[in-house]
Design a protein that fits this description.
Blueprint: H1 2-17, H2 20-30, H3 36-54, H4 58-76, H5 83-102, E1 111-113, E2 116-118, H6 126-145, H7 150-188
Antiparallel strand pairs: 1-2
Length: 194
């Protein structure tokens, strides 16, 4: 019994230390200023998350993106030199969450993957959700690229570059969706009015 409790306590500590808040505390204890290792970790995390989000159905993808930006922001939380980058990442998260909340699909259950779950938006709202996500990413890039100091610019430009790669993927998906809508309208004999 004691061995079982010891194993259970170990599992609990591992899970607690892997939570985003615990990770943010660990990083904030290690880093108090700009560091290549922290910037590398944020960039790597965003890239990996964006790849995983891209594999989800479109209706779940945007909630995945919002959580990716939130988790990256948590890593930078409490580190003054990363303040503008933290704010830029939180901006993207909050704007995506707002458009998702306005367009939730109550007919679809949350998609669960491990300890994470993602809410769906309606298919009709996908163009709007994509456009707002792109706008938020563009605003975040502007914040990052207008960083106040030369030392921040190198780190922030790397984060802006990974956001840009995500933006390029979304734009291409938006163009594909627009082409499908145009083709469908053509099949119905409808003309585009915009």
């Amino acid at each position: 019994m004691r061995r079982f409790l010891s194993c259970l306590a170990t599992v609990f500590l591992l899970v607690a230390s892997s939570s985003p808040n615990a990770q943010a505390q660990n990083w904030s204890q290690r880093a108090t200023t700009l560091s290549d290792s922290l910037t590398n970790e944020v960039v790597r995390r965003l890239r990996n998350d964006f790849r995983q989000c891209g594999e989800l159905l479109n209706v779940y993808r945007y909630d995945c993106y919002s959580k990716s930006y939130r988790n990256a922001a948590i890593k930078l939380s409490g580190i003054p030199d990363y303040g503008p980058a933290h704010d830029a990442l939180r901006l993207v998260e909050t704007r995506i969450v707002a458009v998702i909340d306005a367009n939730l699909d109550p007919t679809r259950p949350a998609l669960r993957q491990g300890f994470r779950s993602f809410d769906a938006v309606t298919e009709a709202a996908l163009p709007e959700v994509k456009r707002e996500t792109l706008r938020a990413m563009e605003d975040a890039q502007t914040i990052l690229l207008r960083s106040p100091s030369a030392s921040q610019q190198t780190h922030f430009a790397r984060i802006a570059a990974v956001i840009d790669s995500n933006k390029v993927l979304l734009r291409s998906a938006l163009l594909q969706l627009d082409q499908r809508v145009t083709q469908f309208a053509g099949l119905l004999g409808l003309k585009r009015t915009y």
